[in-house]
Amino acid sequence: MEPRFITNEPVLVIGDRLIIADLHIGIEYEYWKSGVKIPSFLEKAIPRLVKLLKANKAKKLMILGDVKQAVPGISWQELKELPELFRRIGKIAEIEIVPGNHDGQIEKQVLKGVRVYPRSGVLLGDVYFTHGHTWPDESFVKAKHLVMGHVHPGVEFKSELGYRWVEEVWMRAELDPEKIKEKYKTSGHLPKVIIMPKFNHYAGTVAMNKSEDEINRNLSESPGPIMKIIKFPKAKTYLLDGTYLGEIRKLI
């Protein structure tokens, strides 16, 4: 199954699945604790997801981790909004989740009919789905594509006047066969890696066209093992509108 990118949306369609990553439901509560009040992301996210599911005739919604925000535990906002998400989306599509590093106790929060896969990921057809914060299991080498989230990728731009801003991007990368052989004792065919932009615009975006030290400082958590075994400098970047920006090494 070939992935189909949806123009101007951080969304993939593969077969009958609509795929998103990094919902971070409840992140507004984190901002509120810091004195910043922002409206609920979910109020607009659900109609947006419904529209995307219907427009693409998708029967399933796959969420690649960080469905919720709180680490550890679960906030009052998540206790309120997670059931609402599952109930309303569950009326029109099956919901599948590969938990991320923010998803402790998510199994206790899902409603009947929501499927939760192992945290390492899952091979479905010729695509391996994972959040990206753990090592995938050995079945991933059978896949044609590995799709992940977790790092909220972006590219930083700089104007002639020195103004800087970051745009969200898709990343497509190849795995390093030597590092894969060292970890999994296997060689030969390896899946192509697709790194998804975050779905929640309130969550931060991390500029990838920086030094490794700068990227690690800007990430709120570890980039995860998969980021360490891809050919990162040669990773290709694309804006959400499909514009090809080039390889990371040429954007630094």
Please, could you describe this protein's structure?
The protein has 252 residues and is an alpha/beta fold. It has a single domain, classed as Purple Acid Phosphatase, chain A, domain 2. The chain contains seven helices and 15 strands. It has helices at 27-33, 42-55, 76-90, 106-109, 177-184, 212-218, 225-228; strands at 4-5, 12-14, 17-20, 60-63, 94-97, 115-116, 122-124, 127-129, 145-148, 153-158, 164-174, 192-195, 206-207, 236-239, 244-247. The strands form two sheets. Strands 7, 8, 9, 10, 11, 12, 13, 14 and 15 form a nine-stranded mixed β-sheet that branches. The chain has a six-stranded mixed β-sheet with strand order 1-2-3-4-5-6, with helices on one face. Helix 4 links the parallel strand 5 and strand 6 (115-116). The protein starts with a strand and ends in a 5-residue tail after the last strand. The model has no long low-confidence stretch (mean pLDDT 92).
Short description:
Helices cover 23% and strands 24% of the residues.
Secondary structure layout plus pairing:
Layout lengths: L3 E2 L6 E3 L2 E4 L6 H7 L8 H14 L4 E4 L12 H15 L3 E4 L8 H4 L5 E2 L5 E3 L2 E3 L15 E4 L4 E6 L5 E11 L2 H8 L7 E4 L10 E2 L4 H7 L6 H4 L7 E4 L4 E4 L5
Parallel strand pairs: 3-4, 4-5, 5-6, 8-9, 9-12, 10-13
Antiparallel strand pairs: 1-2, 2-3, 7-8, 10-11, 11-12, 11-14, 14-15
